[in-house]
């Protein structure tokens, strides 16, 4: 009896240890499997990614017309049916059909479009619509794994994987205002307007363009950060357009070499290269050749950063500009106006 009582705690301890060890191994194996599978992320995001078919009517010299279909993708961002996509996907469309992941189809209404960022907002009216969970593109880091979901070549919804290759790409020459996330995930024609999501299935970008010599994916794709897209969407829903501040000034970054060659009074800042007549900058007396040191106490070292600052402000906002003309510094207070419309969507 004494011998039995002696071994019982030992046996229980061994069995408990074995159970704990087995449980640990099972958890580690599950985590290992999850690490190499994107299934959970895909299941969360794909119901909200839609296919877009835009019908375009084109007239020729013989006064006859023909119809063509433009293929693209979009993302349901609200349960009420608002869809984010690219401007070029729906540009000049006579009708827009949305195909949902669950098989339903609906004609969409164009709420508004912003060619400057290549974004557009559509609306459909259907019950029980899914909506994607929003991520925060400001917290995305280079090297993060991501997924691109869209309708490449019209073959149906497709998921590709990759990483964030770069952030803040702003001199690609695709849009007036650029702040692209760059990715190596395969993005092909038809992916435009689709979702770029993180591994939580959260939207972090709207796939916009590819850099390619062949028309197919070569590992360089670009997406508009979701934070920028949501700002554009809010303006379009509220005003029917994106309302931006307007200064009417073009400038280039001053480098030590440029400063030395032109004998400038500063080897940093922005050199004013163009002023639009009757613009706020012109009315305030800014001249070509002026050096802009700061705007609203933000150092002027990157023309793209300053452009984003100005356009993030609303018309009627006063800005303070610190500049140099010749050897004399000056400070100017400028009232921003509404940016002129660059291009209208043809309904």
Task: Tell me the count of domains.
Answer: 4
Structural class: alpha+beta
Strand share of the residues? Answer: 35-45%
The gyration radius over C-alpha positions equals: 27 Å
CATH topology name of the largest domain: Thrombin, subunit H
Q: Based on the structure given, which CATH architecture of the largest domain is correct?
A: Beta Barrel
Poorly predicted ranges (pLDDT <50, ≥5 residues)?
343-347
The span between the termini is 93 Å
Total of DSSP H or I helical runs spanning 4+ residues: 7
What are the secondary-structure elements, in order, as H or E?
A: HHEEEHEEEEEEEEEEEHEEHEHEEHEEE
Structure report:
It is globular, with a radius of gyration of 27 Å. The longest helix is centred in the N-terminal third of the chain and has 34 residues. It has four domains: 34 residues; 74 residues, Thrombin, subunit H (Beta Barrel); 104 residues, Trypsin-like serine proteases (Thrombin, subunit H, Beta Barrel), CATH 2.40.10.10; 94 residues, PDZ domain (Pdz3 Domain). It has seven helices and 22 strands. The protein has a seven-stranded antiparallel beta sheet. Strands 9-10-11-14-13-12 form a six-stranded antiparallel beta barrel. Strands 16, 17, 18, 19, 20 and 21 form a six-stranded antiparallel beta sheet that branches. It is an alpha+beta fold and 347 residues long. 23% of the residues lie in helices and 36% in strands. The C terminus is likely disordered.
Name some characteristics of this structure:
347 residues, alpha+beta, Thrombin, subunit H, globular
């Amino acid at each position: 009896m004494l011998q039995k009582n002696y071994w019982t705690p030992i046996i229980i301890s061994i069995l408990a240890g074995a159970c704990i060890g087995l449980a640990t191994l099972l958890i580690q194996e599950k985590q290992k499997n999850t690490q190499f599978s994107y299934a959970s992320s895909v299941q969360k995001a794909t119901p909200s990614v839609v296919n877009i078919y835009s019908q375009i009517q084109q007239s020729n010299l013989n006064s006859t017309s023909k119809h063509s279909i433009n293929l693209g993708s979009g993302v349901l961002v609200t349960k009420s049916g608002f869809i984010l996509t690219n401007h070029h996907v729906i540009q000049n469309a006579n009708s827009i059909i949305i195909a949902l992941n669950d098989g339903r189809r609906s004609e969409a209404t164009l709420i508004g479009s912003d060619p400057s960022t290549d974004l557009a907002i559509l609306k459909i009216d259907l019950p029980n619509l899914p909506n994607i969970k929003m991520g925060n593109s400001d917290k995305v880091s280079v090297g993060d794994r991501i997924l691109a979901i869209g309708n490449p070549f019209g073959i149906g919804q497709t998921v590709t994987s990759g990483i964030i290759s770069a952030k803040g790409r702003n001199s690609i020459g695709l849009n007036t205002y650029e702040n692209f996330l760059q990715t190596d995930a395969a993005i092909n024609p038809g992916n435009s307007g689709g979702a770029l999501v993180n591994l939580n299935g959260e939207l972090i970008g709207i796939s916009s363009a590819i850099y390619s010599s062949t028309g197919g994916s070569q590992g360089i794709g670009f997406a508009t950060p979701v934070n920028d897209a949501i700002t554009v969407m809010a303006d379009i829903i509220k005003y029917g357009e994106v309302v931006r501040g307007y200064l009417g000034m073009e400038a280039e970054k001053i480098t030590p070499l440029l400063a030395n060659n032109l004998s400038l009074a500063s080897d940093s800042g922005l050199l004013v290269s163009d002023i639009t007549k009757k613009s706020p900058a012109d009315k305030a007396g800014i001249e070509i050749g002026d050096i802009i040191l700061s705007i609203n106490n933000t150092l002027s070292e990157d023309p793209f950063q300053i452009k984003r600052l100005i356009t993030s402000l609303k018309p009627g906002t006063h800005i303070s500009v610190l500049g140099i003309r010749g050897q004399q510094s000056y400070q100017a207070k400028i009232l921003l106006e509404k940016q002129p419309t660059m291009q209208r969507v043809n309904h």
